[in-house]
Amino acid sequence: MADKMSDRELADTIKVINKAASSNEPASTMLTLMQPLKRAAPPSEDLLRSTKAGIVIGKLRSHANSDVKRLANEIVGKWKKHVEAEKARRQKGPGGSPMVKERSSSATAQGASPAPSSSSSAPFTGDPLLRKFENDNANINRTNDTARNNCIGLMYNGLAYRSQEPVENIVLKAVEIEKAAYDAYKLDSKRYKIKLRSLFQNLKHKNNVELGQKIMSGEISAERFVIMDSQELKSADLKKLEEDYEAENMKKAQVPMAEKSISDALTCGKCKQKKVSYSQAQTRSADEPMTTFCECTVCGNRWKFS
User: Fold this and answer.
1) 113-127, 136-150, 259-273 — which is least confidently predicted?
2) Architecture of 7-88 per CATH?
3) pTM assigned to the model
């Protein structure tokens, strides 16, 4: 029989695996770190939740390396079977007869909301590229306003795309984001809807996978997310690409430089003289202002602005 990991051992193992995945460690390292999870007895559902083990290992099922992907699927599959078996045992009475209906009837009589099904709290196992609240059978009707519920659905679709997070986790995060946007823009319903559509498009952007991950992990709070501007929403890779593009255009613009004009409206920040020559060039995209290159004819100081 497989040995059971202690709570501390599991938590430490998951932290190390998560850090290795974030640092793009080689597949051989990932496989070595994951092997103890395969050999150990499955942990309880509560422990999987508290350590975020299901989330961390679940993400590795989309790893670029096929061996890492296969091992992650094996581990998650083993955990899922164990959790479902635990729930089945709890749902039976002392004599082995099911008690689900009795509890369900009692909850309904008291007007309580039904608890999420086991499938809604388990890691997603389908195609993450096809995820939508309709396909996931997610309940997005969390307010008394149809328009707001539709916006919750929109946020769910953006967060679920390319994600293997459980359905209920994504629903709760979508509700949190919609509520933050409603609080921030409730006096302007047009801005509220435009902002949520913009956030959805950024979540779905093919080069911005990390945005949804940061939202789900809590690295970016819902309150912060709904007020981020277009520059802040861009991925690090896209920002780097734009910086490289600007630098390349700047080099092209400077060699050769266009014929310079002399202006007395510009002041040199170094010698304070107003004998400044300047030229202009388009160094960024066409919808951005031109960059002005300045050179003081007195002290030779150079600077630029746009």
Assistant:
1) 113-127
2) Up-down Bundle (1.20)
3) 0.45
